[in-house]
Specification:
Layout lengths: L1 H35 L12 H10 L7 E2 L7 E8 L4 E7 L5 E7 L3 H7 L6 E7 L7 E6 L7 E7 L17 E7 L3 H9 L1 E2 L6
Antiparallel strand pairs: 1-9, 2-3, 3-4, 4-8, 5-6, 6-7, 7-8
Protein name: DUF4245 family protein
InterPro entries: DUF4245
Pfam family, one: DUF4245
Length: 200
């Protein structure tokens, strides 16, 4: 009995040793692959936002503000008309990966800011951006988004009556431009906005 037990103990010790050696080999292989593998880069999807603008204009009565062209290295990653809140939405990444968003809807500026997550806003100075769609833009500060720069402007009809969400896009609208890019870059983006019809 004692001899059989010794054989069992030696056999168990050998199995544990073999498992440790196997594990070390696997770890060495994984480390080797990690050191010699090329860095993976995930590129965001690029969308043809000008085609979306053209389609919206062709639908009749839809007049979104948009940049005629983006600077070199910039891409549009999202361009949609959000039917749930009657909003034109455009997302852009700058050449260095900074985000800029554009939203346009028939609601007051504070309501539009709240719709997109900017609560407890405080209006700052009005900025003369010189954009074709509207020269004067309001700047905003708020809690919880200290790294963002935010501007709004009114298009078409000035506010007086209650805004009607079914009103034609582009008339009595608020445009919101915001993002993590530097303030000067966001102002330049806002200044580039137009509402020119795209060629049919």
């Amino acid at each position: 009995m004692a001899q059989g037990s010794a054989r069992y103990e030696r056999s168990a010790a050998g199995m544990v040793g073999a498992m440790i050696v196997t594990l070390l080999v696997i770890l060495a292989f994984v480390a080797f692959r990690a050191l010699n593998r090329e860095q993976l880069s995930v590129q965001p999807n690029q969308v043809d936002y000008l085609q979306v603008v053209k389609d919206l204009q062709g639908a009749g009565g839809v007049d979104p503000a948009y940049p005629e062209r983006l600077p070199k290295g910039w891409i549009a990653t999202r361009a949609v008309y959000n039917a749930s809140n009657y909003a034109w939405e455009l997302d852009v990444l700058t050449a260095d990966g900074k985000y800029i968003g554009l939203r346009q809807a028939a609601v007051r500026d504070r309501d539009l800011l709240e719709d997109y997550g900017y609560d407890e806003v405080k209006q700052g100075p009005t900025v003369d951006i010189g954009a074709m769609v509207s020269p004067e833009w309001k700047s905003w500060s708020f809690k919880g988004h200290s790294g963002d720069t935010v501007y709004t402007t009114a298009l078409g009809l000035q506010w007086g009556d209650e805004p009607n969400p079914a009103r034609e896009l582009g008339k009595g609208q608020t445009v919101l431009v915001f993002g993590s890019a530097p303030a000067t870059v966001i102002r330049d983006f806002a200044a580039s906005l137009v509402q020119d019809p795209r060629a049919s």
